[in-house]
Each structure stands twice: as C-alpha cells, then as structure tokens.
Amino acid sequence: MKKDWKPEIVWLDPKELTPYINNSKIHSDEQIDKLAGVIAEFGFTQPILVDKDKVIVAGHGRREAALRLNMSSVPVVFADHLDENQIKASRIADNKLALNAGWDDELLAVELGELNAADFDMALIGFDAAGLALAMGLEADFEAGSEEDQGKLDEKSPIECPACGHEFHR
Question: What is the model's pTM?
Fold first, then answer.
C-alpha cells in the first residue's frame, strides 16, 4: 500500500459504477430499501470505493440504494493505492469484519431509548421490530416459542410497542 495515499472524494453518476461480477455479498431488496431510507435521512455519509476502472470495491448496496433514490451523483473514492489482490481482499474484508463486531447491549439499549424518547424514526436504525424490542429490553412482550419459531410472530394478537412505534404480534 502506498503510505502517502490521500483519498479524494469525487462525485460520479452511480450508473457509471460497475458492480463487481464476483461480489459475494448479497443485498436483499429489504436491505436496499433500508439503505435508501438511511441515505435519504442522513445523506451519503460513506463514499463508494472503486478501482481504477470504476468497478466497485465496497459500496454495492449503497450504489443500489442511490439508484432507487434516482440520485444523479454519489461520492466515490478510487482505491488506486491497492493492487489487484489487495482490492479482492478488501472487498471481502469490508463486509466480513463488520459481521465480526458485537454490541455492548447496555449502551445500545441506552442509545436506542434516547432516540425513541426523541421520537426518532426507529425504522431507520436497521433492526427489525423483534430485534429492536430485544435490543431495547422489551423481549418480555413476546412469548417464547420453539427455536424454529423465535423471531416469527403470530398475526393474531397485536401488541403496540410504545418504545418503537411498531406493532408487534404474539
């Protein structure tokens, strides 16, 4: 790696950026919709990383979200300091290392509670309703089921969650 690399952000049309054909990270439609919501709320806070040919190294989901939002330009950084193998490894590391991180459950609950108290749109946080309730310490509102049924809620008994504004079902 070049030690003197100083990334510069340029703004390009997301249609000019090419998804990497062997990208092993899968982005669901639901995730892309959530990313689009985050970008609409907070702006484009992370540039898309591309190689010299504008093939995406990191940011496939952000590009798709930008396309859904009909954005005409997105922030891009060229990874011109990396060789071909470093780019390949960077694609994988960018996604895998984030998955290896954990949460401080107490601090997460405090932060989520403060956002909820401020009437922030909790749907933008990225948790599904059950995960959000669990993270906020509201898991007692759910009946425990079999391991297979955990996280799947029956449609019969709606519960309004005052902490997140979502309707839960037992």
Answer: 0.74
